[in-house]
Amino acid sequence: MALELWETLKEAITAYTGLSPATFFTVAALGLAVYYVVSGLFGGSDNHQHVPRQYEEQMQPLPPPVQLGEITEEELKQYDGTDSKKPLLMAIKGQIYDVSQSR
């Protein structure tokens, strides 16, 4: 049974590709090797989502909003980071945050 299957496979390879079975399997093996080398150079898709644990430990949650009361846009512009002695403040949807760490 297996011998008949092998003979049928050899005939089919020769009929469809015009190559001898040894040449066909050599070309297939070389193509597979080239594929693995090229995919190894560019990395797999699973490598893109991995964030090193060391980086995760360095990340800290955002500090709570700064309580300055109500200030005008002009007063907030004084804290734009141009003066290194003053904190860098940012307003997002009415909340004021100290983002001095990310200068």
Largest sheet report: 2 strands, antiparallel
Give the structural class: mainly alpha
Low-confidence stretches: none
Helix content: 40-55%
Task: Give the strand order, joined by hyphens, for the main sheet.
Answer: 1-2
Percent in strands? 5-15%
Mass-distribution shape: rod-shaped
Order of helices and strands: HHHHEE
Record field, number of beta strands? 2
Number of helices: 4
Overall pLDDT confidence? 81
User: Distance between termini?
Assistant: 74 Å
Radius of gyration: 32 Å
Protein name: Cytochrome b5 heme-binding domain-containing protein
GO molecular function: steroid binding
Organism: Salix udensis
InterPro entries: Cyt_B5-like_heme/steroid_sf (IPR036400), MAPR/NEUFC/NENF-like (IPR050577)
Folded structure, characterized:
The protein has 103 residues and is mainly alpha-helical. It is 48% helix and 8% strand. The chain contains four helices and two strands. It has helices spanning 2-17, 21-42, 53-58, 73-77, and strands spanning 89-92, 95-98. A two-stranded antiparallel sheet has the order 1-2. Strand 1 (89-92) and strand 2 (95-98) form a beta hairpin. The model has no long low-confidence stretch (mean pLDDT 81). Keywords: Lipid-binding, Membrane, Steroid-binding, Transmembrane, Transmembrane helix. The chain crosses the membrane at residues 12-38. One of its GO terms (molecular function) is steroid binding. InterPro entries: Cyt_B5-like_heme/steroid_sf, MAPR/NEUFC/NENF-like.
